[in-house]
Design a protein that fits this description.
The chain has four domains: 88 residues, Chorismate Mutase Domain, subunit A; 85 residues, D-Maltodextrin-Binding Protein, domain 2, CATH 3.40.190; 75 residues, 3-Layer(aba) Sandwich (D-Maltodextrin-Binding Protein, domain 2), CATH 3.40.190; 86 residues, Alpha-Beta Plaits, CATH 3.30.70. Helices cover 43% and strands 24% of the residues. The longest helix has 40 residues. It starts with a helix and ends in a 12-residue tail after the last strand. The C terminus is likely disordered. Bound molecules: prephenic acid. InterPro entries: ACT-like_dom_sf, ACT_dom, Chor_mutase/pphenate_deHydtase, Chorismate_II_sf, CM_dom_sf, CM_II_prokaryot, Preph_deHydtase, Preph_deHydtase_CS.
Length: 375
């Protein structure tokens, strides 16, 4: 009897039971094939170790997903293919290296969310108490990678991160942009019972208008992270925390008000840091630090060589030199691969005009905003 004819004579329960048997048998075959795939990934990992090649090859991953996406069907969309293969690549990379990733903790921070968005669940997470501790874990070899916040679309630069990248030997090797949806969390108090709101200074600032309108009399207490604020809220009934839903789940809190950020497009950029390594083929942005003489036209003389070669400057920031009054160093992001002939050419001219020019790292294509996983 054909499948169609059989479907007509089977009761719903019989159909479910029959298809479950088929699904179990398909899962069995999938698992065998996935193990075979993992074995090849392991062999590639050994070859990469021998040749010094990088484990993570985003270009190859994109190629695979694009080819499979073209064969997608009504039953399995390109988005499903992307999600499934993203987990397969995670597993595959995890047999090639153990990825300990330090992040600004504790558990439940937005940085943890960014870490999972970038590395998937195959990473072994190492929660650190401060941005400094994340850098120390990477420079000291306790973690291969680190994830730290660097810029918020409402509040601007996180200067400590910028200073540490400028002052240490680590490189920026990627970035992640997350939309930030702040919630007010409490153990079991209602809005009227809250006398204190704790959160990272940036989060308190990003919710200023909402707090002025809804909790004008409450004390605002700046703490080291939003997740730490959630820990405090779990212990103190009249204290509410500004944090994400991941923190609510992790610390057993209720969301008393969702989406309290003043700007709905509020997003944070996180940098992925590591010890210096060669740029990847598909890195399209290069990060630079420029130290300039304190004279008229100094900044212009380093920007001109870029403009002349049509290299766009996508970000510029200044930080005090600290060793000299009112003198600055400049952080630049430019839209070009670090080894591109035009950029190498520009850098040579810039080096003549500046006290020093340092390449701080490079990133792949500008990340799209990813939606926070509130599951
Ligand atoms: O092709 C490689 O270089 C692999 O290591 C295999 C593989 C994969 O699982 O397909 C895994 C990691 C890379 O980022 C790209 C692809």
């Amino acid at each position: 009897m054909s499948e169609l004819a059989l479907a007509l004579v089977l009761s719903p329960d019989e159909q479910i039971a029959r298809s479950r048997v088929e699904i179990s048998s398909i899962d069995d075959k999938l698992l065998t094939l996935l193990n075979l795939r993992q074995d090849h990934a392991r062999r590639i990992g050994e070859a990469k170790r021998a040749s010094g090649a990088c484990v993570y090859q985003p270009g190859r991953e994109r190629e695979i997903v694009a080819a499979l996406g073209e064969r997608s069907t009504e039953l399995l969309s390109p988005a499903h293919v992307r999600t499934i293969w993203s987990a397969i690549f995670d597993a595959s990379r995890s047999v090639q290296e153990e990825r300990v990733v330090a992040f600004l903790g504790p558990r439940g921070t937005y940085t943890e969310e960014a870490m999972f968005a970038h590395f998937g669940c195959a990473a072994r997470a190492l929660a650190c108490e401060s941005v400094d501790a994340v850098f120390a874990a990477v420079t000291g070899g306790r973690a291969r990678y680190g994830v730290v916040p660097v810029e918020n679309s409402t509040e601007g630069t996180i200067v400590r991160t910028l200073d540490l990248v400028l002052d240490t030997t680590v490189s920026v090797i990627g970035d992640v942009v997350l939309p930030i949806a702040h919630c007010l969390l409490s153990k079991d108090a209602g809005l009227a019972d809250i006398t204190c709101v704790a959160g990272h200074a940036q989060a308190l600032a990003q919710c200023r208008r909402w707090l002025d309108a809804c909790l004008p009399a409450a004390e605002r207490r700046a703490v080291s992270s939003n997740a730490h604020a959630a820990q405090l809220a779990a212990q103190t009934p009249a204290l509410a925390a500004i944090a994400n839903r991941r923190a609510a789940d992790h610390y057993g809190l209720a969301v008393i008000a969702p989406d309290i950020q003043d700007e709905q497009i509020n997003s944070t950029r996180f940098w992925v840091i590591a010890k210096p390594r060669a740029a990847r083929q598909d890195d399209e942005r290069t990060l630079l630090c420029l130290e300039l003489d304190n004279r008229a036209g100094a900044l212009n003389s380093v920007l001109e060589p870029l403009a002349e070669r049509h290299i766009a400057v996508t970000r510029i920031d200044s930080r005090p030199l600290k060793t000299e009054l009112w003198a600055y160093r400049f952080f630049l992001e430019v839209a070009c691969h670090p080894q591109h002939a035009d950029l190498l050419d520009a850098l040579q001219v810039m080096r003549d005009a500046a006290r020093s020019v340092t390449v701080l790292g490079s990133c792949a294509t500008q990340p799209e905003s990813r939606h926070a996983n509130h599951a």
